[in-house]
Structure formats: structure tokens, C-alpha cells
């Protein structure tokens, strides 16, 4: 007997290949010649084992040994050898043997009869098997799988063991406690295959079932790193359950038993069970024997999952099971099942709480097959209708309608499935149930929704009903899927479809009308759903589109004729709707889509052309036309007749405005009288007291402004409202210049500089920018602007000057003045002149006019085109002669005015104030603070300071936040220098704003702030610095208003200080402040006393 | 809590208390709601768009505005002290009729010409205790006095008295309230100070 160990050692130590070959041949011949009972192969394996490079014995064998091992006898030998390993050397050899055997079983010369031996050998592992590593076990399982799933092996095993399948018993015993997920994946595969392909006895089946049922419901440990998902594992186990229909008697009771365990079953488990039940019901053959016996128990177990269920996942899984049962059952079995379901569910339809679940149950079963639908649809619909007649509430009706809708959608799907002739005729037999549905069910809620007083619930219900109605229009007749005639293939007759589409359109029309007044989420939903339903219906039944377009156009047309303000939005929304309904989807006959497109496009085009060409009733002949229509307007004592009574509210409004304008015209003509081509006030005003006459003129202008304001832009233009401002309704006496004509500025100075400019102002204030542009076209606006900045337009009445300023502001704001070159040139020139210091009496007036123009222009922000004007604003405060007055007037540029509000059609850009601050105050602040060496004169610095404060006073803190520190110092400087008066009021207001927003900035200046505030409200006379010209002195004693205002601002600041600052900053000055506050409690103005008392209380609490 | 001196006083509702009357009460009906817009003074006639007081607009009476000069009158004194809380009940002295407008007198009368900030003005307030044996009459009087001292300028002299025959010991109470030394001493008393602070909490 050869010593294999020695041979192996020599083989390893051998240097050349020839030597190695001879050693190998020697070993091979030893193996061949050795007697069988000496087990030479085992000894050889033991000998080569220590020299193996890897753990794979099979590879080593192949590498080292050249002899042909593929012979049948040898394979058998190998099998018995490796098989023996399971018995002998467990630790080291199981994995190697299993791998080796796997290779062997794949060999050509492997004989299926050996499989049984291998299985037997594996079974000898017995209790040692669970102790092996998972990797080792996996190799064994894979070996088993490759054997059992091998068809040749299978037939051999079945031949040997017969139905009892004894080998399986051993395997089951061996693998009973397997827990590794990877191994289980293979093991379940083996079991499923065994059940599916072998024909084991019922006892064996039960045995196997007991094995895998123990794993159900299966989960994966969270720490598992196998790379297998829980879902894969569940599916693999499910495969065992579904492997053969013979399991039916075990699986269904077992699974239902698990399900009925009650509270302990988690959602995941429940879903797993339901999916398994579904898979079984789907997979088992001969359903009448396997599924049918359990239908009742499954139904009675599962219906509560839906009826009382709350978790959507479970409900869905349950519905799937119920549906698959209906799919599997046929004939009487299906009839019985359908009957049971129907019987159980229809009662619930009467209960508002259970209606929705009952509907889901019904739909899940009846949607399974056409046969189920035929059996259940009719009784279900009958019950739904019955309950709709006596609903328990709006929610109940909604649920019932939803059930009907889903049934209609189901029918739509089922009708196009393949059906035999018998089935199809049965399907057609229940068509009458559906044809009557519109009149019986949908008509009522839809008509309710059309009513203007429809409630939230009505809308909610109708939103559900329109979906059903839309689905109803789309229904095809059961019999004629093959019929080419599209018309005959529909379930409903054409006129019914038309009626439904018409009703749907009416609902949309009603929701559109209600849109602004009573929009709710329900009406929004109704509108969207109705639009969808209508689109669907029209796509399905194309002839409905033409009447819809016709109706839509009628509405657009009548809206255009009556209510001018609504007509645009009506045309817009209906145009969108009709386009969506007709052209968003190609119908079954594609050319119809194109027809629709042409129809709607052409109609809208013609409508647009018609509305463009339609002549406005408002034109320059309005006076005669209104006087004609309302005869008697002209005769003072005649009763005005409304011969051609206005038809619509829109018409009434237009006429109301025209009649008002007629009277405005009369009043204007009465108040003015022409002399040449100019106008003057009529003589009656001479006798009037000035205040009264001013007020009268202002009221007249206000009335004209009101009427003009109410006119739309188009109306203002077509009436020529801009010309009213020029001729003040004396169109015969004052010719309005043609566009582009040369206008001499002095010709039109009377409009701006006489007292009747209030009348012009009233109209101008209400004109829209487009109408103001006409004034520029005529050249009159330019004339007024040039006249006011070039000549001294002083008037006897100061009011005239103020009105002129307002007119200039409007003209500069409502038109792009910077594009009018000649005017801009003159303005820039004048700015230079004013700045050059040639100050005479008229310069101040001119400069003020420039400021008024700037106020209008800068609201639009167009500073870069008016550099001269901006420079004037920036530099005016430096003028030694006019600086004082002009710096105070800077406030005009920023202060809010009614004329410049959006309501008066002024153009106000969002960030104009920020830009203005940047352009003006930003450069003035350092100069006012003396940081600019070129400006050192104290009076000029004071002017700049006042100017800055006047600008900043009307701005929110955030704009000047960056420079708040400097502005705070400016405010203190102004308040310290000047006594009470408007300048100090501005300074205190700015100071208060800064302290409120950023009180920390005031801390370094606290002493000064207290001093100036105390000075402002104390009665002591202000000591003016010597360098200050007398004109800057405190406001006169009788300027009670500004005195009281500065007292109020100062006391508000004083009252706030104790809240803003820690008491240690205030305590030193407290006694003096309290003394002053006590005195302020005797201020003559009541509100000041109140503030003083509050401040006194706040200071008293300091200690 | 100790038994109240007067457990069930008569309380006036807020609408029954005297208030400052509008000089010209304007009706505000639906027909008048556009008055403000129609008769508004035009913006071009207000600062900063006009730079002088102009006569070309009918002048509204300047004394109507919120910034008009109005001397301190009885109603103002009433407003200052009627909101003091009663030490016993959670209602104000005005509501209990302890303070009454006719019992406040200012000398010289508010609109007397020639009254300057240096003229000594005397304010006499007579309190009416709710019952004749009210033990808190002194405290109430003291509260009124403290409140007025905090609110009035230095040229005002304050006299607080019990109304004649309204209290069984009115001369005693009046003596206490009129004695500067005793008033000062009372204000040093922490308990009394607490009671007074509580009473004055409700004053705006």
C-alpha cells in the first residue's frame, strides 16, 4: 500500500515538471490498483489536504491530478467518497464535499440514481447540520436544490420512493431549524419545487406544509447583512404556499386563522397574509375545488377588514383578494359569491357610515370580470338609487354618487374587453339600467348646482355628480364594439348627450358668475370637475361642441354689450374653457379635433374683429346725443324724460356719467366766460367773498374730477376728456391746438395762472396717463410747464400758485416728461440760472415750480434724464439768498399728496423713495455734517440740515438706516439751533423715528436729546446763536400749531426714554426733567398736558 | 377679609358719568358718509404744498382742532380723579359717585382772562363718601390729593374735603386732609402707600 503522504510531499518538493508528472502518475496508479476496502481515495485526500492552496478541494483535485475522472464508475466513487465526508470529517470537509458534489452532479456522467445516495449521505449530518456555518449550509442547500430540481433526478426519486417520498422526511428533519435568510431562500425553493413537481402523498404534503408554515409570517432580522430584502423572503415563502392546489385545504384555514388572531396582527403581517391568500387564490388550479370551498369563510373573514378598516394598505390588499376570487370563480359558484357579496353590502348602503366601504367591496367584486359585473351591477344600482332618494346627509349622497361613478368607469373598461357572444349578450342585457341613470340620478343634483342660491353642500354633491354624468356620456353600447358607426356605438342617445353637455355648461356658467362673490373650495372643485367632465363628454360625443360654442359666444357678446368691466374677463374665461373642452384631446375620429379647432378659432376671431369695429357710444358728439336721448335736460322746468331708457346696468352707468358730465359742462360754462381765445372767471365771482368762491371753484373741479375719474381709459380718450382741461367746455371759444402744431407758451398761461386753474386741476387730477399724453400732443402741457418755470407767474391770489404747483406735479408725473426735449432743455437751463445765484423775487417762485415738477417726475423715477433738476434739488440749499426757503420746500418732493396716489392714476414706482434718498439726501448728509471741506458756512450747513430732515421725515427708517447716526446728529443740530417751528417739528419727528427703530444710536447723544426735548416743551424762550440770521428765529407765538406739534413730539420722545434706556443714563438729569415736565402739565393744549403727565409718570418710576 | 363698610353701594354705569361734550355734535348718518371727501380741504392748501396761511379757504374754527389751547377745567380734573379705584370695591370713584363734577371748583375760573402760568390756581374737590361712617374717607381723600399733585403743574393748590354733612366726622377728616405734615407722614407709611398705589393703578 502506497504512502500517499510521502508521495504528496515529494510532489510538492519536486523541481521540474517531468518529476511531478511521474509522481502524479504513480499516485494515480496506486489509486487504481489499491483494493477497495483500503479506501485509497480517502487516504489520498488526507495526504494532499495540507498542501491545498485554497479551501476548495475540488479545484485542487482538478489542478493536481490529470487522470480522467469523468468515467461513470469513478464518479460514483467520488460520490461515495465525498458523501462519506459528511459522515467522517464534519468540520473540515462538509463545505468542500458539498461544493465538490455540486460539481459532480453537473457532470455529464453523473447518474441520477446517485442522487438518492447523496441525499442519504447528507442526511447523516443530522444534528451536526445546524452547527455548521451558514456558508456551509448554503452549499448543502444549493446541492439539494440542484439535485431535486433536476428532472432526471426527480423521476428517479419518485420511482424509488413513490408517493411517500421518504427522502423528504429525512430532509425535513435535517433542515427543521434553519434560520439563515440566504439558506431559507434556497430551502423554500426546494420545498416549492418538491410540492409542485413531485406527486407526494397527502401526508407528505401536510408534513412539508407544517415545515414551511412555521416560518409564516416571516420577517428579516434588522441586523441581517445577507442582501436579501424582506419582500424577497416573503415572496419565496409565498411560493411554497402557492406551489400546489393540493395545499388548499391547509393554507386557507391556516391563513384565515392567522388573520383572525385579532389585535396581535400588525399591519405588515396582515398585508402579508392577504397577499398570500390572494396569491393562493390566483395560483391554485381547479378553483371550483380548491378556492370555492373557502369562499364563504374568506368573505366573512375579510369583509370587516374593509367595512371597519382604517388602514388603506390592508383595505387594498383585502379588495385584491375579493376581486381575485371573483376572477377565479365561474358559473354557479360565481353567482353564489356575487349574491353573498351583494346581499351583505346593499344593506350597508343605507348607512351613511358604511356606504363608502360597502361601495368599495361591491366595486372590487363586480369589476373582476364582465360576468361578475352582469350579476351585480343591476341590484347594486337599484339599491344606490333607492338610497339616493332618501339620503342620510350630503356626505351619504356623495358616497353613493361616487359608487355609481366608479361603476360607470368600470363598465367603460369592461365593455372593451374580449367577451364571447353569450357573455356579450348578457352584458348588453343590463344596459337599460344605465340609460336611465341620468334622469333618475344625476339630473337633480346638477340642476340644483345651476341655481344661484346653491349651497356649499350642493356644490360638493354636484362635483361628484358631474363626474358620473361625464362618464355616462362616454359609455359605449355593449353590443356594438365592432360597429363602425360611431353614433350607434354609444349607450345614450344623442339628444341625451346634448342635454347633459348643456347642463354641464350651465353649471360652469353659474360658477363663473359666482366666482367673485361666493367662491368656496366646493365651487372651485365643482368648476374643475365639470370642466373635466365636459371635456370628456365632448371628446366622446363631438356634435355637442357646436351648440356649446354658440352658447359661449352669445354670452361673450351680451357681456360685451352690457357690462364693460366684466366683458374682458368673460371672454377670457369662456375662450379658455371652450378651447380646453374642444381642442385639448383628439377624439376617436381625429379629424373632428381639427373641426373643433377651426370652429372655436374662427368664432373667437370674428368676435374679436366685431368688438374692435363696434363703435363706442361715447364720442365727441356726446353732448348732443345725451341731450337727444334725455330731452328736457336743457329746459330748466321740463320734466326730464327717459325716452330711450337704458337697458342694462352698464348702460345706466354710462348714461349716469354722461348726464353728470352734461351738468358739469353747464356749471363750468356758467363759471367762466370767454374773452377772445382765453377764458376768465365770470362776473358773479367778483361779488363773492374770496374763501367762498375758492371753495365753490374747488367743488366744481372736484365734481368734474369725479366724473372723469369714473371713465375708463378708452372712454376718456374717445370723449376727448383731455380737451376739457384745455377749453373748460368752451369748445367754441377756445380752439384746441392740433397735434404737432406750434403753441406759444404765453397763449396758454391763463390756464395755469388765473384763478380758474382750479377747474383745470380738477379734470387733470382724474385723467389717465394716456389722456394726459394728448395734452402733450396738443402742446398745451409744454406751454404750461415752460411758462411756469420761465416767467414770474405771480398772481394776486396765493391759492392760484399752489394749484399751479399741483398741476405741474400731475403733468410731470403722468407723462414721460423727460422725453419732451424742449421742455427738459428749458428746465435744465433754468436750474442753472437759479443755482448761479441771480436771486430776484421771481426766482423763488420759479424754483418752487421746479420742485413741484420734480415731485411728479421722481415718483416715476427718471432722475438720470433730469440731471439739471436733480442738481437744483441737491444744491438749492446752498444758495445764500434762497437756501432757507428752498431747503424747507424740499419737503414738497417727498411728502405724500393725494394727487400722486394710484387712485388718481399717478405713476408711482415701488422704489422711488429709495432712489430719491440715494440721489439727494445721501450727498447732502455729509455736507450738512461739515464733513465736506467745500461747505463750511454754518448757515449753509443749517440749510442743508433742514433740507435733509425735510426729505427724511417722510421716509421709513429702513431707507436711511445706514446713515441714521449722521441724520440723528443733524436733527439734534437743527433742534439746538432753531427754536420751535416747522423745522424743529421735522427734526423731532426724525429723532423719534430713529429712537424707536434703533434706540442704541441715541445713547451717546442722550444729554443733548434730553436738552432739546426739554427746550421744545418748556416755556422758556429759545436762545438763538449769534451767527443765525434773524429770519431763522423761532416760529411766531401765534403759530400755535407748530408749537403744539413740537411739544407733542418732544414729550413723546421724553415719555419713551425711560423705556428705551437704562435708568443709570437718565437718573442724573431726572430732577431737572421732572421739574420741566411738571410745568408742562400746565400747557394750554390738552393733548400736550396728557403726554406730559404720561412722561412725568414714566420718569417718576425711574428710581 | 374684614367686613366692608358699605357692602352694597350704588354703582353708575360708564354712560352715566359726565364726559367732555363735543362742542358741535355732528351727526354721522349714511347720507353724510361722503361729507369728508366732498368738503375736504384740498391738499394743495396744506403744508408743505402751500407756504402761507391763506384766506382763500373758509377758515375752520381753530379752537376746534386737537392742537387748540384749552385751559384745565373741572371736567379735566374730574377725568383725572374719577378713574381712581375705590379701596373696597373694584369700581372707580366716579362710578360710586364719590367724585362728582359739580363738587369740583377751580378758582379763578378756567377761562378768566389774565391767568398766566404764574397765577396761583386753587382746585377744590369735595368727596362724598358712600356712607356717613365710612372709615376709608381719609384714604380716598388722600388718593385724590396724591393723584392731582402728580398731574397738575406747580401753580395749582389742591384742597380736598369731605362734602358737608356727608360724613359723621367730616371735620376730623377735613383736618387730616388739610394738614400737610400729616399727609406727608401718611405717605411715608408703607401699608398706606401700597393701598394708594393700588387705587391709582387704574388711572390712565
Automatic annotation (TrEMBL), chain A:
GO biological process, any: protein maturation
UniProt keyword annotations, A-Z: DNA damage, DNA repair, Nucleus, Repeat
Keyword Nucleotide-binding: no
Ranges for domain MMS19 N-terminal: 71-306
Role played: Key component of the cytosolic iron-sulfur protein assembly (CIA) complex, a multiprotein complex that mediates the incorporation of iron-sulfur cluster into apoproteins specifically involved in DNA metabolism and genomic integrity. In the CIA complex, MMS19 acts as an adapter between early-acting CIA components and a subset of cellular target iron-sulfur proteins.
Alphabetical list of SUPFAM superfamilies matching this protein: ARM repeat
InterPro entries attached to this UniProt entry: ARM-type_fold (IPR016024), MMS19 (IPR039920), MMS19_C (IPR024687), MMS19_N (IPR029240)
Highest taxon in the source lineage: Eukaryota
MMS19 C-terminal domain ranges (all copies): 692-963
Compartment annotation: Nucleus
Source species: Emericellopsis cladophorae
Name of the molecule in the record: MMS19 nucleotide excision repair protein
UniProtKB/TrEMBL annotation, chain B:
Domain of life: Eukaryota
One biological process term in Gene Ontology: protein maturation
PANTHER family documented for this protein: CYTOSOLIC IRON-SULFUR ASSEMBLY COMPONENT 2B, CYTOSOLIC IRON-SULFUR ASSEMBLY COMPONENT 2B-RELATED
Similarity-based family: Belongs to the MIP18 family.
Name the record gives this protein: MIP18 family protein-like protein
Amino acid at each position: 500500500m502506497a504512502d500517499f503522504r510521502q508521495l504528496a510531499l515529494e510532489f510538492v518538493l519536486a523541481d521540474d515538471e517531468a518529476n511531478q508528472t511521474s509522481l502524479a502518475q504513480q499516485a494515480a496508479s496506486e489509486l487504481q490498483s489499491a483494493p477497495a476496502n483500503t479506501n485509497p481515495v480517502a487516504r489520498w485526500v488526507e495526504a494532499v489536504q495540507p498542501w491545498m492552496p485554497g479551501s476548495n478541494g475540488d479545484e485542487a483535485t482538478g489542478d493536481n491530478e490529470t487522470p480522467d475522472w469523468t468515467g461513470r464508475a469513478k464518479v460514483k466513487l467520488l460520490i461515495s467518497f465525498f458523501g462519506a465526508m459528511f459522515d467522517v470529517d464534519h468540520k473540515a470537509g462538509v463545505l468542500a464535499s458539498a461544493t465538490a458534489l455540486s460539481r459532480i452532479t453537473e457532470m455529464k456522467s453523473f447518474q441520477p440514481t446517485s442522487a438518492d445516495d447523496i441525499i442519504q449521505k447528507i442526511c447523516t449530518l443530522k444534528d451536526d447540520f445546524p452547527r455548521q456555518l451558514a456558508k456551509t449550509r448554503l452549499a448543502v442547500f444549493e446541492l439539494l436544490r440542484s439535485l431535486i430540481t433536476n428532472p432526471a433526478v426527480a423521476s428517479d426519486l419518485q420511482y424509488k420512493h413513490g408517493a411517500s417520498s421518504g427522502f423528504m422526511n429525512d430532509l425535513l428533519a435535517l433542515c427543521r431549524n434553519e434560520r439563515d435568510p440566504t439558506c431559507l431562500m434556497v430551502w423554500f425553493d426546494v420545498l416549492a419545487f418538491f410540492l409542485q413537481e413531485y406527486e407526494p402523498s397527502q401526508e407528505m404534503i401536510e408534513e412539508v406544509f407544517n415545515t414551511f408554515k412555521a416560518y409564516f409570517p416571516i420577517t428579516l432580522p434588522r441586523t441581517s447583512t445577507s442582501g436579501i430584502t424582506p419582500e424577497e423572503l416573503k415572496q419565496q415563502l409565498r411560493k411554497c404556499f402557492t406551489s400546489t392546489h393540493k395545499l388548499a385545504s391547509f393554507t386557507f384555514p391556516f391563513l384565515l386563522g392567522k388573520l383572525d388572531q385579532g389585535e396581535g396582527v400588525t399591519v405588515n403581517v396582515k398585508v402579508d397574509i392577504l397577499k398570500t391568500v390572494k396569491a393562493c387564490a390566483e395560483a391554485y388550479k381547479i378553483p371550483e375545488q380548491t378556492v370555492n370551498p373557502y369562499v364563504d369563510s374568506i368573505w366573512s373573514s375579510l369583509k370587516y377588514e374593509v367595512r371597519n378598516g382604517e388602514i388603506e394598505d390592508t383595505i387594498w390588499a383585502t379588495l385584491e383578494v375579493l376581486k381575485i376570487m371573483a376572477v377565479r370563480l365561474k358559473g354557479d359558484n360565481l353567482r353564489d359569491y356575487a349574491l353573498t357579496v351583494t346581499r351583505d353590502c346593499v344593506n350597508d348602503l343605507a348607512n351613511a357610515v358604511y356606504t363608502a366601504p360597502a361601495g368599495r367591496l361591491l366595486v372590487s367584486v363586480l369589476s373582476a370580470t364582465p360576468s361578475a359585473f352582469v350579476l351585480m351591477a343591476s341590484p347594486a344600482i337599484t339599491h344606490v338609487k333607492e338610497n339616493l332618494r332618501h339620503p342620510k346627509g350630503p356626505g351619504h349622497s356623495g358616497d353613493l354618487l361616487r359608487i355609481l361613478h366608479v361603476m360607470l368607469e368600470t363598465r367603460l373598461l369592461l365593455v372593451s374587453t374580449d367577451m364571447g357572444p353569450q357573455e356579450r349578450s348578457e352584458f348588453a342585457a343590463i344596459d337599460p339600467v344605465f340609460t336611465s341613470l341620468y334622469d333618475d340620478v344625476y339630473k337633480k343634483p346638477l340642476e340644483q348646482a345651476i341655481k344661484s342660491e346653491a349651497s356649499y353642500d350642493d356644490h360638493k354633491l354636484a362635483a361628484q355628480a358631474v363626474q358620473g354624468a361625464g362618464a355616462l356620456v362616454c359609455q359605449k353600447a355593449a353590443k356594438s364594439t365592432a360597429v363602425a358607426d360611431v353614433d350607434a356605438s354609444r349607450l345614450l342617445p344623442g339628444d341625451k348627450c346634448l342635454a347633459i353637455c348643456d347642463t354641464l355648461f350651465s353649471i360652469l356658467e353659474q360658477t363663473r358668475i359666482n366666482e367673485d362673490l361666493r367662491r368656496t373650495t366646493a365651487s372651485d372643485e365643482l368648476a374643475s370637475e365639470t370642466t373635466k367632465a365636459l371635456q370628456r363628454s365632448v371628446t366622446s360625443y363631438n356634435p355637442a361642441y357646436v351648440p356649446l360654442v354658440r352658447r359661449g359666444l352669445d354670452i361673450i357678446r351680451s357681456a360685451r354689450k352690457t357690462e364693460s368691466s366684466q366683458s374682458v374677463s368673460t371672454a377670457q374665461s369662456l375662450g379658455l374653457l371652450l378651447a380646453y373642452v374642444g381642442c385639448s384631446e383628439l377624439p376617436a375620429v381625429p379629424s373632428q379635433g381639427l373641426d373643433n379647432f377651426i370652429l372655436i378659432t374662427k368664432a373667437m376671431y370674428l368676435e374679436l374683429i366685431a368688438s374692435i369695429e363696434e363703435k363706442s357710444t361715447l364720442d365727441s358728439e356726446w353732448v348732443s346725443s345725451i341731450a337727444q336721448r334725455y330731452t328736457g335736460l336743457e329746459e330748466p322746468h321740463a320734466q326730464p324724460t327717459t325716452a330711450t331708457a337704458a337697458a342694462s346696468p352698464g348702460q345706466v352707468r354710462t348714461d349716469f356719467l354722461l348726464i353728470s358730465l352734461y351738468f358739469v359742462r353747464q356749471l363750468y360754462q356758467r363759471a367762466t366766460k370767454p374773452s377772445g381765445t382765453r377764458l376768465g372767471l365770470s362776473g358773479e365771482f367778483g361779488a363773492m367773498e374770496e374763501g367762498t368762491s375758492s371753495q365753490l371753484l374747488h367743488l366744481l373741479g372736484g365734481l368734474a374730477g369725479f366724473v372723469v375719474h369714473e371713465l375708463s381709459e378708452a372712454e376718456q380718450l374717445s370723449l376727448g376728456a383731455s380737451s376739457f382741461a384745455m377749453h373748460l367746455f368752451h369748445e367754441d371759444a377756445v380752439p384746441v391746438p392740433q397735434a404737432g402744431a406750434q403753441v406759444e407758451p404765453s397763449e396758454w398761461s391763463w390756464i395755469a395762472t388765473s384763478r380758474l386753474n382750479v377747474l383745470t386741476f380738477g379734470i387733470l387730477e382724474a385723467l389717465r396717463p394716456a389722456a394726459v399724453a394728448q395734452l402733450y400732443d396738443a402742446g398745451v402741457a409744454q406751454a404750461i410747464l415752460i411758462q411756469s418755470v420761465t416767467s414770474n407767474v405771480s398772481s394776486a391770489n396765493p391759492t392760484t400758485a399752489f394749484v399751479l404747483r399741483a398741476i405741474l406735479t400731475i403733468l410731470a408725473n403722468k407723462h414721460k416728461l423727460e422725453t419732451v426735449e424742449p421742455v427738459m432743455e428749458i428746465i435744465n437751463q433754468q436750474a442753472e440760472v437759479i443755482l448761479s445765484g441771480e436771486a430776484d423775487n421771481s426766482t423763488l417762485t420759479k424754483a418752487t415750480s421746479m420742485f413741484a415738477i420734480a415731485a411728479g417726475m421722481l415718483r416715476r423715477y427718471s432722475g438720470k434724464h433730469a440731471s439739471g433738476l436733480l442738481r437744483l434739488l441737491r444744491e438749492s440749499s446752498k444758495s445764500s439768498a434762497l437756501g432757507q426757503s428752498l431747503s424747507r420746500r424740499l419737503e414738497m418732493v417727498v411728502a405724500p399728496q393725494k394727487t400722486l396716489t394710484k387712485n388718481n392714476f399717478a405713476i408711482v414706482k415701488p422704489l422711488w423713495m429709495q432712489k430719491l434718498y440715494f440721489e439727494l439726501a445721501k450727498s447732502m448728509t455729509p455736507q450738512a455734517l461739515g464733513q465736506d471741506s467745500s461747505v463750511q458756512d454754518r448757515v449753509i450747513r443749517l440749510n442743508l440740515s433742514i433740507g435733509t430732515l425735510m426729505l427724511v421725515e417722510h421716509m421709513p427708517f429702513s431707507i436711511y438706516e445706514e446713515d441714521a447716526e449722521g441724520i440723528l446728529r443733524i436733527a439734534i443740530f437743527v433742534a439746538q439751533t432753531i427754536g420751535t417751528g416747522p423745522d424743529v417739528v421735522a427734526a423731532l419727528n426724525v429723532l423719534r423715528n430713529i429712537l424707536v427703530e434703533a434706540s442704541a444710536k441715541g445713547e451717546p447723544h442722550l444729554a443733548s436729546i434730553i436738552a432739546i426735548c426739554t427746550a421744545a416743551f418748556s416755556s422758556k424762550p429759545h436762545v438763538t446763536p449769534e451767527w443765525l440770521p434773524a429770519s431763522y428765529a423761532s416760529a411766531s407765538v401765534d403759530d400755535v400749531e407748530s408749537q403744539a406739534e413740537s411739544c407733542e413730539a418732544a414729550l413723546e420722545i421724553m415719555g419713551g426714554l425711560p423705556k428705551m434706556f437704562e435708568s443709570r443714563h437718565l437718573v442724573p438729569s431726572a430732577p431737572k426733567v421732572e421739574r420741566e415736565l411738571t410745568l408742562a402739565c400746565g400747557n394750554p393744549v390738552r393733548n400736550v398736558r396728557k403726554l406730559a403727565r404720561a412722561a412725568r409718570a414714566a420718569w417718576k418710576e425711574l428710581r | 377679609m374684614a367686613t366692608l363698610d358699605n357692602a352694597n353701594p350704588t354703582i353708575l354705569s360708564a354712560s352715566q358719568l359726565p364726559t367732555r361734550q363735543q362742542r358741535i355734535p355732528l351727526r354721522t348718518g349714511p347720507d353724510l358718509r361722503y361729507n369728508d371727501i366732498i368738503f375736504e380741504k384740498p391738499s394743495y392748501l396744506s403744508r408743505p404744498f402751500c407756504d402761507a396761511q391763506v384766506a382763500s379757504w373758509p377758515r375752520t374754527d381753530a379752537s376746534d382742532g386737537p392742537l387748540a389751547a384749552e385751559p384745565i377745567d373741572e371736567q379735566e380734573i374730574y377725568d383725572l380723579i374719577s378713574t381712581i379705584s375705590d379701596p373696597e370695591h373694584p369700581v372707580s370713584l366716579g362710578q360710586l359717585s364719590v367724585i362728582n363734577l359739580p363738587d369740583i371748583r377751580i378758582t379763578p375760573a378756567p377761562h378768566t382772562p389774565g391767568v398766566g402760568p404764574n397765577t396761583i390756581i386753587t382746585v377744590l374737590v369735595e368727596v362724598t363718601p358712600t356712607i356717613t361712617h365710612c372709615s376709608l374717607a381719609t384714604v380716598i381723600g388722600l388718593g385724590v390729593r396724591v393723584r392731582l399733585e402728580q398731574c397738575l403743574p406747580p401753580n395749582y393748590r389742591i384742597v380736598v374735603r369731605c362734602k358737608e354733612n356727608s360724613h359723621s366726622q367730616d371735620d376730623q377728616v377735613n383736618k387730616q386732609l388739610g394738614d400737610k405734615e400729616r399727609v406727608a407722614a401718611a405717605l411715608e407709611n408703607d401699608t398706606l402707600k401700597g393701598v394708594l398705589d393700588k387705587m391709582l393703578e387704574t388711572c390712565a
